[in-house]
Amino acid sequence: MDSISLFEVVFIALGLAFDAFAVCLGVGAARLAQSARPIFRLAFHFGLFQFLMPVLGWLAGTSVESWIIAWDHWVAFGLLSVIGGRMVVAGTKTENDSYPSDPSRGSQLVLLSVATSIDAFAVGISLAMLRINIFYPSVVIGGITGMLSWIGLIIGHHLGQRFGKGMEILGGVILIGIGFKVLLSHL
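User: That's the sequence. What structure does it adopt?
Assistant: Structure tokens below.
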């Protein structure tokens, strides 16, 4: 098996972690994850999924590459748009009417984790085709994603405290924008 340099792995990890970082900025700004526990859950799960998806992609090898390439951008776009749309709607309601659900629990946590890590699956397929051992790159990718997610949540939280409910709307628009970016980059 061939190897990959630390510089190359960090560069790949930063590229893959950007979507998770941006989502965490939006979630933090919407003040949907304010205490240590939901912040940890989001950062941990984003890092975990970014670790697991390259491994799954590597195991799948080239057998599903054409299907993933054909549909990954549509799945990411749909998931991010639905969650972003819910944030925009919640941001337009008054405090008494607004009851956004905790994105660090249940189906929203899984949907966000999958939506931000689908590209990592394709990276795993690419590394399999290059005959590169997947464990080391996956650990670095997951670790960097977890760290950047935590940083994004903290920065977003401070922005949300300063600017209020408008940041919840902005966070939702950011999620929808990331979905469109993913979609347009693959069309």
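The longest helix spans residues 135-163.
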